[in-house]
Amino acid sequence: MVKCCICGVVFFHTLQSSAFAPPSVSFSMTARTNTAGKLPYPEDIASVYHHMDNVDKKRPAILGPTAFAASALLGVPFWCTVLLPFTVFSTAVNLLWVLLRGPKNSPASIDEFHHEKEQNANITPMNSRKYDLVLLGVSGFTGKLAATYLAKQYCVGTEAKLKWAVAGRSKKKIESTLKSISEKLGCDQLLQVDVIIVDTSQRDTVREMVDSTRTVITTAGPFMKYGTCVVELCAKYGTHYADITGEVQWNKAMMKQYESIARETGAKLVSFCGHDSIPWDLTVRLLSEKLREAGEELVSVECLNEAMGGVSGGTIATFFESLDRGFDEVKLSTLASKESGLDVYMRLPDGSESKSVVLSDLPLAVSPCKNPSLRFLHRWSSPSVMAFINFEIVRRGVALSRSRSKTLKYREAIVTESFMDAFTMWFGQIMLGTLIVNPVTRPFMKMILPEPGHGPSEKEMEDGFLCVTGYGVGTNGTKAQTVMYFPQDGGYSSTARMLVESGLCLSLDSNKHDFVDGGFYSPSALMCHALLDRLLQNGTHFACKLDVEK
């Protein structure tokens, strides 16, 4: 059963884990015609699959009959008769106690939103700032991967064009991390990278950081706990921002509080710049563009995910943090709720509401793959927990796309080789979620699951991968297909790469952005082609076509 739960942990994270055409409405924020990559891209669908299957030899993990038997014969009866009733009862008792006790004093990052304006005279002009990019959270698991990627791809030293620095709370930990990366890469120049000491609970340290750089990229989560001050001061100082959060309610609260300020200062803030949710956000936009080549609007999308990878302690800590601070989540939900009947994700730059509607068609149980393509024939699909996050980001991207299609149906699922694997994965997620939600078993799960700073081994990340196949249908029934393949672990190695390239897009590729002015954007809405071009130059494979063959 423990093995089953651990399998659930792995899949729980890894398999979660725009300007399409001339606007049909008037915008006060300037949209620009895309000047980056043009379709078609150099690879075709078959060559991407061939590279994944035959060159890289990537395959989803096969859990097998033993894990299936343990889940079906032992796990399901135990969950139904013992764990679920116990969890419902203990959660109800715990909730009653919390309601009677009232909320604990929440940290300033949640309770206090600072509305005072910064003195413009004290803000360094963008073209005079010392750094192009600052990486916050470098001593964490994903932060270290991001720093490693930066060093490998863009190097350092007097001749390096990219000016970057790293930031975090502990100078000792940061220097130890840089030394470790330097020894691994044989790059002594990495020790020359500037170190900025930043404590997100100390506003002055955050202020100094954001005023020194064009863009901040951060892996320091949970973002509800450590991200609010960074977002606030980036918005006020006109500093671009990217993160890898999956915390939708927090992001909505940030939008509600600081978007008007970001418009004034020109700060472009883009969350969800990792596994959550770049692959799916870009897929929907690119399918829409491909169908517009045929004169049609996208009306339905199905994303089928093939993947393998691990989970880090930081990701798990975010889940625990959200559960442990339930009142703060309620508070964030309140802050992010509809204002004057307007959902902030549906809000357009001019303040009006998007007329587009994105409907969820996310599966809740295991089912046979209904997609007619030969690749998915006789295969099974399982729900993806992270699809609920991806769905929200897709909604935001579609709202900013000025799509003429009023309704889009979005579906996403994990693909497995067999019913046994699909069921074992699905039940593993349910079992893991129940054990984490249960207030009695939660402390035990904290002890046995990875702690922050720990995660998959290098070999596990190298063996991991993510492949998202998107199928789109247009208004007249024309079909389009995309495939986006990341050859390493999607949740960590590839997430670090996506975050870094998103930050560089913000800092260096402003002439390729689809919007000129500041504000909160989804990755696809602001920098779809500029970002995709960067990813394709650094290991990602992508292809798309019209008229999917049945």
Question: Care to describe what's here?
Answer:
The chain crosses the membrane at residues 76-100. This is Saccharopine dehydrogenase NADP binding domain-containing protein. The chain has helices spanning 2-14, 45-55, 64-101, 108-111, 141-154, 171-185, 203-210, 223-226, 228-237, 248-265, 278-292, 313-324, 326-335, 387-400, 419-437, 442-448, 458-463, 493-508, 523-537, and strands at 133-136, 164-168, 194-197, 215-218, 240-243, 268-270, 298-308, 357-360, 367-368, 380-382, 407-416, 465-474, 479-486, 519-521, 541-546. It is α/β, with parallel strands linked by helices.
Secondary-structure blueprint:
Layout: H1 2-14, H2 45-55, H3 64-101, H4 108-111, E1 133-136, H5 141-154, E2 164-168, H6 171-185, E3 194-197, H7 203-210, E4 215-218, H8 223-226, H9 228-237, E5 240-243, H10 248-265, E6 268-270, H11 278-292, E7 298-308, H12 313-324, H13 326-335, E8 357-360, E9 367-368, E10 380-382, H14 387-400, E11 407-416, H15 419-437, H16 442-448, H17 458-463, E12 465-474, E13 479-486, H18 493-508, E14 519-521, H19 523-537, E15 541-546
Helix pairs in contact: 1-15, 3-15, 5-6, 5-18, 7-9, 9-10, 10-13, 11-14, 11-19, 18-19
Can I get a quick summary?
The chain has 550 residues and is of the alpha/beta class.
Topology, number of strands? 15
- Low-pLDDT ranges: 1-39, 106-111
Going by helix content, strand content and strand pairing, the class is: alpha/beta
Percent strand equals: 5-15%
